[in-house]
């Protein structure tokens, strides 16, 4: 597996992988001493990356609360979400992360990130001796041209679909007038029918 670290001009950062991870990551740890990332999984397993981050990027990472994480397989986005970035030997980092609201539309956020990427570097290569793998894993594909794989495309459309607002107004005539029956018209009708049957 090969992994690149990409940045936008606004300081958003993300890891782009050439394969999907065997399980979902729950966090990424960065060590300022070594410049290396570690991807951590829920079952306490982890993946240590093997190429140090350039020190020029340290300040940007220090200001980042989360990293985008996505897998590009056959020129399609096959996996995409966000994970918190933690720093080795930083006991106050978790407190700061607890005050960070979750991203409401993770696929849309990843899509926007990819369309805005402007620079980056490799941070992991499955075969460090392979000089041909040093280039970006996207190859000749522009980040902005990538499309979601079908299963994620459907999820992305659901994210952007308008959501119906819950009905909170008073029920119409003949549908019951108690405050407990003002939830939705359907619930009120069921309650009314039940009362009629009991009579």
Tell me roughly what share of residues is in helical segments: 10-25%
The percent range for strand residues is: 25-35%
Q: Could you give the distance between the termini?
A: 70 Å
Secondary structure class reads alpha/beta
Rg over alpha carbons: 24 Å
The domain count comes to 2
SSE run: EEEEEHEEHHEEHH
Give the overall silhouette: globular
What's the tally of helices? 5
Number of beta strands? 9
Which stretches are low in confidence, meaning pLDDT under 50 for 5 or more residues running?
Answer: 174-192
Give the mean pLDDT: 80
Sheet having the most strands: 9 strands, mixed
Describe it for me?
The chain is an alpha/beta fold and 199 residues long. 24% of the residues lie in helices and 29% in strands. It has 5 helices and 9 strands, in the order E-E-E-E-E-H-E-E-H-H-E-E-H-H. Strands 1, 2, 3, 4, 5, 6, 7, 8 and 9 form a 9-stranded mixed sheet that branches. A hairpin with a 4-residue loop joins strand 3 (25-31) and strand 4. The longest helix has 14 residues, at 185-198. The N and C termini lie far apart (70 Å).
Chart the SSEs and their pairings:
Blueprint: E1 3-8, E2 13-17, E3 25-31, E4 36-41, E5 46-48, H1 58-62, E6 66-73, E7 76-87, H2 93-98, H3 106-116, E8 117-124, E9 147-148, H4 150-160, H5 185-198
